[in-house]
Amino acid sequence: MSTHEDRTRAEERFANGEPPPKPELKQLDLIDAADLSGIVPPKREWIVQDLLPKRTVVLLAGPGGSGKSRLVMQLGEALRRAEPFLGMATTPCTTLLYSCEDDADELHRRHARIEDGLGYAKDPPGRLLFAPRVGADNALVTFDLKTGLTSRTESFNILRATALAVGAKVVIIDTLAQCFAGNENDRIQVTSFVNVLAGLAQEIDGVVILLAHPPKNGAQFSGSTAWDGSVRARCLLEFKEVDGAPRRYFSLVKANYAKTFEHEVVVDDYGVTHLVDQVPPSMADKIDAYAALAKAKAVFLAALDRLTGQGLAISASRHARNYAPKAVIHANLHQGVGEKLLAEAMHALLNDGVIAANMIIGKKANRSALRGIGRVAQPVEEDEQDGVAEVAQ
Asked: If you average pLDDT over residues 196-218, what whole number do you get?
């Protein structure tokens, strides 16, 4: 009915003394549980099995330099090829990487290295699309501080239209800091922002992945706990110190629809991330050597503490009578580690600045200085070691 007809009808009702019609109130779309009884529910759909459920928002956090951007590009490449991602089955699809920190050339270089590592993909079933956004206004929503209402920006509308046009099932936003223009500690703003992205995930029938940096205080994510509560899954890429050496871990720390996990991962020379127990044969030897060296370092330091505690000096010089690797073996403190590997561990510790040669480690019988290899950094106290062990688990 036209506006003119509406007005005419209203005048007639007024002239006839009829009460004005009550406005029709919108109601929620409801589902009656009785209508669902006895019907098998649909199976949950995954983009990556037990990691990325469809129609959700997922948060991936990790410190700078941990390799988040490289890892999500590898994810997109795995989805393009329909190949497993860190041992998990994938569904081939189109991935759109909304990159706010890397330009087109850097994205090209990074992808070329990944492709060199994985090999050239012939006729892949999916697509991996890059949207370099360095220097652009990337805020996806704005917040009215008076009303608390959230408004989608032109940048969001362009991102949404592009994702729908190319049929993207995965939208990766790198990074959260560039796209969230609100207060990260404001629960309402955080929840509203994630809800806007959840709507996008519903529209594309896929997943929106948010990359974020954790704060310096050691927390797994920055800002309000609403970040954790609003997303359906939260992943963490981090370094942990184990046996005196940093190791990299990829974890699913929150999962509404799957079991959480923590996997140690390693990065090969091409920047491709692998589960530590599923590395290519060429890399397995490197990992074994790395683990052996880490053990040799721990053995050397334990022996050094034992010998210096007994007032015995050892030397880094191969021509000295108390040459450290030989002295450790002679004292039966080598725990099966050979002289060559002990020497390698000693030089690595010297280069790392953990130990130093020709340090004063005590006094001789004549009260003159006793010199030899000594620790630059003191051993961790027993209660501190317990804390390190807990973090490393």
From this structure: 91
For β-strands 94-99 and 127-132, DSSP reports them as: parallel
The closest of 236, 275, 273 to 254, measured between CA atoms, is 236
Q: How far apart are CA 86 and CA 201, in angstroms?
A: 23
One-letter amino acid for residue 199 of the chain? G
pLDDT per residue over 36-74, tens digit each?
Answer: 999 999 999 999 999 999 999 999 999 888 899 999 999
Q: Which residue's entry shows tokens 């589960």?
A: 275
Helix, strand, or coil here: 80?
Answer: helix
Per-residue model confidence as pLDDT tens digits over 327-344: 999 999 999 999 999 999
DSSP conformational letter for 316: S
- Segment 274-288 mean pLDDT: 73
| Residue 224 near residue 244, CB atoms below 8 Å | no
Of 154-168, 182-196, 295-309, 376-390, give the lowest mean pLDDT range: 376-390
Q: What is the mean pLDDT of residues 147-158?
A: 93
pLDDT of residue 123 exceeding 50, the answer is yes
**Three-state SS sequence of 129-154:** EEEECCCCCCCCEEECCCCCCEEECH
**Distance (Å) of CA 135 to CA 130, 132, 163, 177, 178:** 15, 9, 21, 14, 10
> How far is Cα 170 from Cα 172, in angstroms, rounded to an integer?
6
Tell me the C-alpha distance between 250 and 164, whole Å.
30
Q: Write the class of the CATH domain 46-279.
A: alpha beta
Residue in the structure block whose two tokens are 């620790």: 375
CA distance 81 to 13: 67
Kindly report each contact of residues 176-180 with a partner whose C-beta sits within 8 Å and lies 24 or more positions away, as own/partner.
176/59, 176/210, 176/211, 176/212, 176/213, 177/212, 177/213, 178/100, 178/101, 178/133, 178/138, 178/139, 179/98, 179/100, 179/138, 179/139, 179/140, 179/155, 180/139, 180/140, 180/141
